[in-house]
Amino acid sequence: MNTVPMTDLLQRFMLAFIPLFVAIDPIGLAAIFLGLGQGVPPERRQKIANQATWTGGAVALGFLFLGQSVFTALGISVGDFQIAGGLILFIIAAKDLIQSAAEPEKLPDDFGIVPLGMPLIAGPALITALLLLAQIQGLPITLAALVVNLGIVVLALHYSEWLGRKIGPMGMRAISKIISMLLAAIAINMIRRGWAG
């Protein structure tokens, strides 16, 4: 008799988990982290990864519980939020593309907060998905799906170092520029969706 509710619960969890997984994109996030964080010592890389996960998680939780109220109180829409996030990402990507490989720029101390924590982990796609899923699947299921996804983000960022060792410095430089181009494209996509929405 308990199998039916458990199956229903698992199905609802998956219906919340999958959109959040797609919105966060832990694998793409690890590639961006790897590309932009090249040459960073492992201890600092781990600190940035932790900072990003905590920031993304805190922002996501904040919007899960208060998001709609905040947007309504400030008179902004999800589209406005997408445009702002897209502009931040575009500036970071353009800066990395223009910068010479001969003189790599030092990552700022808050790199784990902006852009990794927000808008890459807790970006417009995740925030929109959280607000919708909380209404459709319920707050407990959505919260559980978010926690599992953040756990996957921790693993993806942790193992990005291993991938970096396998690829080597030349591969890392190439990946860095490709990732910056993709980041710029993601930024434009966010701005376009925000403008259309």
What does this structure look like?
This protein has helices at residues 3-24, 26-36, 42-74, 78-98, 112-121, 124-136, 139-158, 160-167, 169-196. The chain has one domain (3-196). The protein has nine helices and no strands. The protein is an all-alpha fold and 197 residues long.
Multimeric status of the protein: single chain
Integer count of domains = 1
- Global Rg: 18 Å
Give the SSE string: HHHHHHHHH
Biggest sheet, open or closed, and with what strands and sense? none
SS element count, helices = 9
The average pLDDT score comes to: 82
Q: How many angstroms separate the termini?
A: 45 Å
Q: Can you give the helix content as a percent range?
A: over 70%
Strand residues, percent: under 5%
Task: State the low-pLDDT regions, or none.
Answer: none
Key phrases:
single chain, 197 residues, mainly alpha, 84% helix, 0% strand, globular
Q: Outline of this structure?
A:
By secondary structure, the chain is mainly α. The chain has helices at 3-24, 26-36, 42-74, 78-98, 112-121, 124-136, 139-158, 160-167, 169-196.
Helix and strand arrangement:
Blueprint: H1 3-24, H2 26-36, H3 42-74, H4 78-98, H5 112-121, H6 124-136, H7 139-158, H8 160-167, H9 169-196
